[in-house]
Write a structure and sequence with these properties.
Helix content: 40-55%
Strand order of the largest sheet: 3-2-1-4-5
Order of helices and strands: EHEHHEHEHEHHEEHHHHHHHHHHHHHHH
Radius of gyration: 24 Å
Bound molecules: flavin-adenine dinucleotide, ligand DLZ, iron/sulfur cluster
Largest sheet: 5 strands, parallel
Structural class: mainly alpha
């Protein structure tokens, strides 16, 4: 949207908390000699969900460091702090206030990562408050328009097909028109269970500097009631530190990234994962840049192809794909609820107070680190929420709040689509539903659990076991024709009546207990 305006008058360049990239389109467009950059810490952004304390500290500290970099680079930066007395508490009113203060007739901004904010900025323009120019966020490889063109006319929008396009477009791991190694996807080699005695490299940890310490004090004071443990706080908050963290990953963890991608261990929070989504999502790392470094590691013989391809697929495949879905589906996507699930999110998602050792471990890790890896999110907490029939909107708001990397464009399709299947299969070809068997195979949680994973029904039985079958039985009308679920439905049909009855009874009882006062087995 461009209202033109006097090209000699200074413009306001608004940079949001997840736009901390020196090459972002709004800054490329700006003129150092006359434009003013606005960065604002505002209470509305810190509270639209009860963000984890570490997430707030991470974003505010990274914003302050970025503002300092910009000033050193010669930009005029108007930086509004959360506790500034004149702070109006919202981005749109801060933009209006700054435009007035600096006599700017227009504002330039790179498109935000959420419908909520986009609508808010569009309304600034529509109410004729300010000429507003919203630029594409070209830190992504595929624009929303290009994704819509790709999706147009397709019956199924499978990630794998999209990913191949992205490989061709970027040339990553390509040998002319062909994928390096003769295959596009080496995922079949990437599902190894953890082995005992394995050792894992820890992510690089930074000590907080004076800027971060100030932010930590602010967060402790203003957000004491938010979820999460604030310290120790070790995230990188500058580009250099994020690059160093990524270098550590490439050197120490990347070669095994593929093999053990799906593994979970009680005492190993990170395994061989990169822990870089938070840096990518606020702009401290560039996605294409890190993929090229991974490709180099493969060509240099430092890392096997299954690891390099697996990593690159996550970044140029899944990450771009979910963003495409987010913008294609529109704001109503958040209301999808194909199963009509309506149960409130159990309290133990906040407290960790449950006897299910796997759920407890994932929630406690989330509380302490604002991080859990993909399988913990998908196959433990997400799986439980779906099997238990929790309202997908509540699940979505939980994921948006508790992870340092959570921004709606990436979190919502992962939660609502991939993890809860609430969109009826737009994103996933079948629900990611699993019994305790899967968790037991991929982790060491079950050996320390009060429940017995081998027991299918009864007071000692693992709740995932009977909830899994109950979920399939409850939703046969929606899932019964799914070709990928034929086998489990055949198994269910072969159970005798007594077994089916016991499963459904146990499930009913547990779900009732979830709804009632916290006296139940799983509470
Ligand atoms: P690694 O496992 O090391 O992977 C490398 C990179 O690939 C990640 O940093 C990330 O940028 C990208 N990636 C991997 N999987 C995905 C994916 N499914 N979607 C998008 N990018 C991916 N990711 C977020 O960035 N923000 C979220 O809010 C978020 N919410 C999620 C909610 C649920 C219910 C699920 C199942 C997944 C969610 N993910 C989200 C995807 C994924 O879990 C995280 O990107 C990953 O765990 C981040 O840790 P990492 O950097 O160690 O990733
Ligand atoms: C997430 C977040 C938080 C906690 N605080 C701020 C803030 O104070 N100022 C700001 O500009 N951005 C913040 N953000 C990030 C925005 O919410 C983000 O731009 C949107 O989530 C869109 O992706
Ligand atoms: Fe989780 Fe069931 Fe294993 Fe307990 S037995 S850790 S509830 S999968």
């Amino acid at each position: 949207m461009n209202c033109g305006g006097d090209t000699l008058q200074s413009r306001l360049i608004a940079v949001l908390g997840d736009q901390l990239s020196p090459h972002i389109s709004s800054l490329r467009f700006a003129d150092k000699s006359r434009d003013v950059i606005l960065m604002a810490e505002v209470s509305r952004e810190t509270k639209y969900v009860p963000h984890h304390k570490k997430k707030i500290a991470f974003i505010l500290s990274a914003m302050r460091h970025f503002a300092r970099e910009l000033r050193v680079d010669g930009w005029q930066v108007d930086y509004v702090r959360l506790d500034d007395t004149e702070n109006t508490g919202a981005l749109s009113s801060e933009i209006e206030r700054a435009a007035q203060k600096h006599s700017c007739a227009s504002v330039v901004i790179t498109e935000p990562g959420e419908w909520r904010l986009l609508n808010c900025l569009t309304s600034l323009h529509e109410r004729a408050v300010l000429d507003t120019e919203i630029l594409d966020d070209d830190r992504f490889i595929c624009s929303p328009n290009a994704f819509a063109a790709w999706a147009d006319g397709r019956k199924q929008m499978r990630m794998e097909h999209f990913y191949r396009e992205m490989r061709r477009k970027t040339g990553l791991l390509m040998d002319g028109n062909k994928p390096v190694g003769g295959k596009w996807n080496f995922d079949a080699e990437n599902r190894k269970p953890p082995k005992s005695g394995m050792s894992f490299p820890a992510p690089l940890r930074r000590n907080p500097d004076a800027i971060t310490r100030d932010v930590l004090a602010l967060v402790e004071e203003r957000f004491a009631d938010h979820f999460g443990t604030l310290e120790p706080f070790w995230f990188a908050v500058t580009r250099d530190a994020a690059e160093a963290a990524f270098d550590r990953f490439v050197d120490a963890a990347l070669p095994s990234f593929g093999d053990y991608q799906d593994a979970m261990l009680r005492d190993e929070k990170y395994l061989y994962h990169a822990v870089v989504s938070l840096y990518l999502n606020i702009g401290l790392l560039d996605p294409l840049d890190i993929c090229r470094r991974v490709e180099r590691a493969y060509h240099d013989g430092h890392t096997p192809l299954n690891a390099a391809e697996g990593f690159i697929r996550q970044v140029i495949g899944w990450r771009e794909y979910v963003r495409g879905i987010y913008w294609l589906q529109g704001p109503e996507y958040a209301d999808r609820n194909v199963f009509g699930h309506s149960r409130p999110l159990p309290d133990f998602f906040w407290t960790g107070s449950t006897e299910m050792a796997c759920v407890r471990a994932c929630v406690e890790q989330t509380r302490d680190e604002a991080y859990a890896h993909h399988i913990q999110r998908l196959m433990v907490t997400g799986n439980f929420a779906m099997l238990a029939g929790v309202n997908p909107r509540e699940v979505h708001e939980w994921y948006l709040a508790v992870y340092a990397d959570a921004f709606e464009w990436v979190e919502l399709p992962n939660t609502l689509g991939m993890s809860q299947f609430a969109d009826g299969g737009l994103l996933a070809s079948k629900p990611y539903a699993a019994s305790g068997n899967y968790i037991n195979r991929m982790s060491d949680f079950c050996s320390g659990c009060r429940y017995t994973v081998r027991e299918k029904t009864g007071p000692e039985a693992c709740p995932f076991n009977y909830l899994y079958w109950d979920f399939l039985a409850r939703h046969r009308d929606k899932l019964g024709n799914n070709s990928r679920l034929m086998q489990p439905y055949r198994i269910w049909d072969n159970f005798d009546d007594a077994r089916r009855g016991a499963i459904r009874n146990d499930a009913r009882q547990l779900l009732r207990e979830l709804d009632g006062p916290a006296t139940g087995r799983a509470a």
